[in-house]
Specification:
Blueprint: H1 2-6, H2 8-13, E1 20-22, H3 26-37, E2 44-46, H4 53-57, E3 73-78, E4 84-90, H5 98-106
Parallel strand pairs: 1-2
Antiparallel strand pairs: 3-4
Length: 116
């Protein structure tokens, strides 16, 4: 998450918005930032109630072991028309590649990007 925060200007330059989503509550997000990763400058959305509804819609809600009831660590890139143009699920101990996400954005067809 901090790695994405460090590259916000690069995402903005590609007309992209970074969002984080997890099943944790907003107070949990705040505590996690304060205690663990530092304050980030992009929105963290809570998928707490109804529990995991967004994660289930994106088919990344974890039903079984080792940690049921959370979402997988994943990245989705959605174009201006609302179409998922890239998705990748990572092991829970892996950090998604910011470089890979930026590269995908740079290679989107012009029709998928407004005002670029």
């Amino acid at each position: 998450m901090p790695a994405f925060n460090e590259e916000l200007n690069n995402f903005a330059g590609l007309d992209a918005q970074v969002l984080g989503v997890s099943i944790d509550s907003i107070p949990s997000h705040i505590a996690w930032q304060k205690r663990e990763i530092g304050i980030i400058d992009y929105p963290l959305l809570s998928d707490l109630y109804p529990h995991g509804q967004v994660a289930k819609a994106y088919e990344i809600f974890r039903e079984g072991p080792p940690i049921p009831g959370i979402n997988e660590r994943a990245v989705f890139i959605v174009d201006k028309s609302g179409t998922i143009v890239f998705s990748k699920v990572y092991a829970l101990d892996q950090v998604p590649s910011v470089k890979e996400c930026l590269e995908v954005l740079r290679n989107l067809p012009e029709s998928a990007i407004a005002n670029r």
